[in-house]
User: Fold these one by one.
Assistant:
Number 1:
Amino acid sequence: MEIPEINKDRLLHDLNAVSRIGLGEGGSVTRLVFSVHELRSRQLLVHLMNLAGLDVRVDAAGNVFGRLPAGRDAPAVLAGSHLDSVVQGGRYDGPVGVIGALEAVRTIKESGLRLPVPLESVCFVGEESSRFGFATLGSSLLAGDVTMDDFANAVDAGGTRLEDVLSSFGIYRENLASLKRDPKTIKAYFELHIEQGPVLEFKKKKIGVVTAIAAPSRFRVVFRGQADHSGTTPMEMRKDALVAAGYLITYIDEVCREYASADKGRVVGTVGAIKVEPGVINAIPGRAELQVDVRSITASSKRKVAGRIKQRARQIARERGMKVELLTIREEEPVALHPRLISLIRTTCEERAVPFEVMPSGAGHDAMQMAKITPTGMIFIPSVNGVSHNPTEWTDPEDICLGTQLLVETLIRAAHAEI
Ligand SMILES: [Zn+2]
């Protein structure tokens, strides 16, 4: 099979251009969903897709599609990722998959290769949960697996509700379902992504062939004690919400360590954000809010751990004579990727003699949502020192080019394959 070669300089140049949008201290990148920087990054993508001569479409949620039509109208093979980032993140989490997919599709277009089905490079809106606590927004809307009620607890640090932002774009309860894309228009979805972990580098492998994605359970825990004077209130008369929170944080660490082994599901749990009120040195905290994230690729283990954490939160509140609220942010099931696509990526690696590792993904991705409506596969490339969601996030440019070249080949194979 004749496989066209990507234009490495163009790929790296465009990735660089994206990383300059939202560039901050120490080379960090901040493009929170629906911020000016995130909107600009999608604008740049639309421009690049137009330059490449693709048919560009932006749906009501802001998901961007660049389509290379085929001779006939058939279900398309899609590839993409996201351009939004965490606060002070790195340059490659997301953009590698978006610009990589664009490079793959325009390479195929320029080669003049005729494929039996259309290709689309995609950028999903709001994959990261950093702003609203709600992840994979655009792909969830496209997969039709979300209702307005799911946004009930999605509020940013400034008090802006996700629901209000969406309604400002004309997305309401009544028309939410219309954002779902007809699965019959999609043949398969691929996502190229940095590993965001240390496994590939440690095992000296160039490519990760992803088998499954660990999905998060996310919830808020709000302890309501009583704010009092820090000097006049005796210790035995306090209802300190932050102390209650402290006990719960320690418990989350303990229970996840108990479930750390492979046979117990490798559960991981994190309290990544905490808000304390009134939040001054001379007052006992009357209110403490924690954001809890629990993940595993084994649904039963994840459920067990999340259940125990909630039970312990209630117990701590009871013992200390305070109230506790448990608010679900997101409940996702772990996802297995498609066996046919997994073997397709494997074969591509084997034929090119590229050392690969078959592995699960600990991080969530848009692929998790796409897998609900279409056969889905993921290709990982190594992260130096396993670092991600951090300004020092780095991947060797040669690895980015290799991953993108393999994506070209994978897309061509998928276009021809029976899936
Ligand atoms: Zn990502």
Number 2:
Amino acid sequence: MSHRAACHCGAVTVTVADGVPLAIVNICHCQACQRRTGSPFGSIVWVPDATATVAGTTRSYTRPTDEGRHFTSHFCVTCGSNIAFTAEKNPGFTGIAAGAFADPSLTPPRTSVWEESRHPWVAVPEGAARFPKGRV
Ligand SMILES: [Zn+2]
Ligand SMILES: [Zn+2]
């Protein structure tokens, strides 16, 4: 069964091909993710580019990362939801906002990064690897 993520208004969707696991979910507590999402942390599922189809009109915003690379957010021009991502750190992969699947059965995050800026009340799932800064 394919999985489908959608922005707030539904104009932009990302469809992931049949059988592609959506298991690579990490949570990032960095301040850029907090501002990008308006939430205390960000969570992105990364899948191979060839398995993800983005439909709808997006614009993008690129920022430098602490490692000197670039991270690009693609967002819906109508509702502004961040829905897809590309990162020099993850060549060949498309990131999809975990929340855009609106699917509580997604695999829990295996890593938690930038914990030094984590809101102290945000609990990290048991067993997740934890890093004070980004995972290199
Ligand atoms: Zn939208
Ligand atoms: Zn982050």
